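Encode chain A's predicted structure.
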Amino acid sequence: MREGVRHSCLDRVGGALRTEHHASFDESAGGSGALSLRVIVPRGGRGASLFLVALVLLSGFLVARFSQPSSHAPGEFEVSEARSDLAAQRTMPTGAFLGTALGGPADATLGLGFLHPTVAGAWMAQLSADLRFAVREGVTPVSLEIELRPLVAASDRERQVTVTSSVDEVTTTLMGGRETVLVALDGETEQLVTISCDDVDSPIGLQLGPDRRAFCALIFGYTINVESP
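Encoded structure for chain A:
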């Protein structure tokens, strides 16, 4: 009788502990492999339930972990390509007006200080903003004509604007309409021109609309003048 009880207990313990599991993952397809999991569930009441819960959680974690696409930081080649593409977008033709409106030829040359371009042009949303552009090799840029209109009140239609290049600085007072400011360039292929304002206003402050953002001026575009051959 005792021998039968002993064998019965051993069978239960052996059944509860008898498990077999096998997991494999194939990463040959660039990190999105297939996970296979084969398990013989142990016999027993509460122990088997806990084991199943743990198994479900583990399999869910593995599937989520290995089904995600792998990510890595861009290498030197990708960075170099991105810089080349940006340089190409910033290389401008000369002798013609280049609009800064959305989709215009010069919208890629808008730097810090500009908002996203609109269909009319690009708003300066700070006291200063940068234009970064280049010309093709063999061309000598000698000046830049910028067309802009300040955001001013009807009672005080004056806005002082300073345009600065590496060799020149021009300060002028805009009177509220569309005007042109001319600044000299140094003749180099790549150019940086900064536009600065003495003040900014918001449309809501000027009772022109509900927009609370502060603006200096709307830049319509510019023309790059080159040295005659």
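Residues 116 and 122 are 7 Å apart (CA to CA).
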